[in-house]
Amino acid sequence: MRVELLMRAGRVGLAVLIACAVLGCAATSTGTGSTTATASKTVGPPKPGQSRVVLMRTGGAGVDWRVQLDGQLMDGLRAGTFVVRDRPPGHHQFMYANAAQLARPSLQEFDTVAGRTYYYRIDLNERGWLVESGNMQAGALPMLVTSAIAAAASDKGLYDFIPLDEKAARAELAALQPAEEVNRAIDLKSGVTTRPLD
After folding, report:
1. Among 77, 114, 159, 169, who pairs with 89 as Cys (CB 3.0-4.6 Å)?
2. Domain limits of the chain?
C-alpha cells in the first residue's frame, strides 16, 4: 500500500515537473517588459487619413503565429505580444492558417474609418483547443485526425479574432510587448535572422 502511494506520488510529481518544463519552454521573454506607457506610445493614434489595427496574442504555445492582414504577413505573434499596423480606411481581412493543421484558414473581415483604432485579440476557439489537445496528448497523428474532423465539421478555422473595446484592449496591452521587439531580440540572441532588422 505504501509503495503504491509512493509510486502515485512519483507519477504526479513527474507530471507536474513535465508540465512546468513545457510551460516554461512555451513562454518567451526578452527581459524588456512592457508598461502601459510603452504600449500607449507604440499604439498611439493612426497616421492622418489612416485607420490603425492592433492585433494581440495573450496565450498559446511559444511559436510565431504568422497572421496576414489584407494578404500581407504581419510580424510573428508570440504569446504575450501585439502588432500595430496602419491601413487606409475601408474593408480589411485578417487570415491565419497553421500549416501543420488541416483545418480551414481562420478569417475575420472588418471595416475601418480614418482616425480610429481597432483592437483584436487572436485566440484558439473550441475546435482549436480540441486539435491542440490532440497534439499535446499523443503527437502528430491525433492532431491530423482532429484537424481533419474540425475542417469537415465547419467552414470556420481554429482561431477567433475577437474585437475589443479600447478600455479592455489597453488593459490587455499593458501586459504585452511589441512583437517586432520580441522577435528582433530572439533573432539577435539566437544568431538567426528570419526578419529584416531595419
Report:
1. 114
2. 1-30, 31-190
